[in-house]
Amino acid sequence: MEFNRLGRSGLHVPALAFGAGTFGGSGPLFGAWGDTGADQARRMVDIALDAGVTLFDTADVYSDGASEEVLGAALKGRRDRALVSTKAGLPSGEGANDAGASRFHLVRAVEAALRRLGTDYLDLFQLHAFDARTPVEETLSALDDLVRDGKVRYVGASNFAGWQLQKTLDAADRDGRPRFVAHQVYYSLVGRDYEWDLMPLGLDQGVGALVWSPLGWGRLTGRIRRGQPIPAGSRLHETARFGPPVEDEALYDVVDALDAISVETGRTVPQIAINWLLRRPTVASVIIGARNEEQLTQNLGAIGWELEPEQVARLDEASARTPPYPHYPYVRQEGFHRLSPPVVAGAGF
Prior knowledge:
Largest sheet: 8 strands, parallel, barrel
Number of domains: 1
Number of helices: 12
Strand order of the largest sheet: 3-4-5-6-7-8-9-10
CATH architecture: Alpha-Beta Barrel
Number of strands: 12
Shape: globular
Order of helices and strands: EEEHHEHEHEHEHEHEHHHEHHEE
Radius of gyration: 20 Å
């Protein structure tokens, strides 16, 4: 397993992390993802740890806390071998204070997560969304206290816009509060919006990316092909409306390129899609999920080898899309020279 420094922190994380969203699955979204119980979860954690996957990610809203409970049970007796990451901030109840980034909610959410996980500290705690109604100073003060109390070791964010992340980082620097070292983001060959604002910001500010849904919300599993219906067993039938949208032709262009490279390399489509992400700037870890041991083992095969530069270029071209304003390339009148956005080079900080 390869390890990368998480942002500008001193913490090193595995290039592949395990996403526990399939653990304890219930409800219209997480029930479709999977319903892994404690026994099967322990076997999957065995496989992950043996492969060097030491970072496990969950959230309080995953199956109403059941994901944290199952993950905690699966890690019992070997908590010291794992890095545990969880998130809070999305609605976790019907009460007025059951969401957001207020001191009240964050302290209560961390304490509840610790109970469910059966641990006394979180290696990484992330805000699941930006809360515009709570002063950022209050949020950072609460996170500072949680760090000082030893309940949280590192802090981060998930699904923030660029201005939201920068505002929080600026306030942390101004007031001497813990800085976010991680940003958990959607990024895939069929969803490259992360590159336009958040990737350059991450490079500039030392915030590492933890990538969720690297297979484009289940679209890059190798089972979806041009001119064919979505397979009967695909979770997309139940979950497509919850995830990032993808135009059919854009998807098929990427799948065609992945299929060709699969033939050349002998690797599966998911392995190639994940491997492409591993070398992208700012990416510290790619979070892989699995409904069973077979899927987990296959996804673990994404590491330990590299795509050829020419293959990367083909995937880049197949997945390229015109970015929105103000990022789209400007075409000069004289000579029609295309001025593209500056290329972000180098994955280090």
